[in-house]
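Q: Predict the bound structure with 4'-phosphopantetheine.
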Amino acid sequence: MSERVAVYPGSFDPVTFGHLDIIKRGLTVFDKIIVAVLNNARKDPLFTVEERVALLKETTKELNHVEVDCFDGLLMDYVEEKNVHVVLRGLRAISDFEYELQIASINKNLNPKVETFFMISNNHFSFLSSSMVKEVSRYQGNVSDLVPEAVEEALNKKYGRQ
Ligand code: PNS
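A: Predicted complex:
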């Protein structure tokens, strides 16, 4: 049987325990996960794409069968280039659904052979987002149970506390 590979795309600005939970649980379904960081020209990220990739590499280094990469442009062009037919996404709450439905539908229209596979977030992380983490950290709130230590340190550095 051929290897079951999924691309897990996102902004990861920065990676949180919620993303890591999806990656770990995704590995129980897929043989390999390619975590693909969008080099978003339109958004104004806190971390550069290189920093986001480095944080993902650091925080997934104990996990086998995880590759971290980045991409520009359309996700469907990227998955075709990688010869992958599944996109993995996490769903936290009903509020995510509309956005995710839109992305999955556009992608289906672009390439009907690619499936989007949703995993429901662990309840523990259903409130967690990179934006919330940045907001809390900016005002010196405690994010130690939301992100790995390497990310917490990187946030402290960004906000000039180290
Ligand atoms: O973590 P995010 O920001 O919710 O991830 C969104 C992402 C990266 C999955 C989505 O914006 C994306 O795939 N962008 C690449 C451009 C693209 O393919 N657009 C068409 C589908 S929205």
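A: Residues 94-110 form the longest helix (17 residues).
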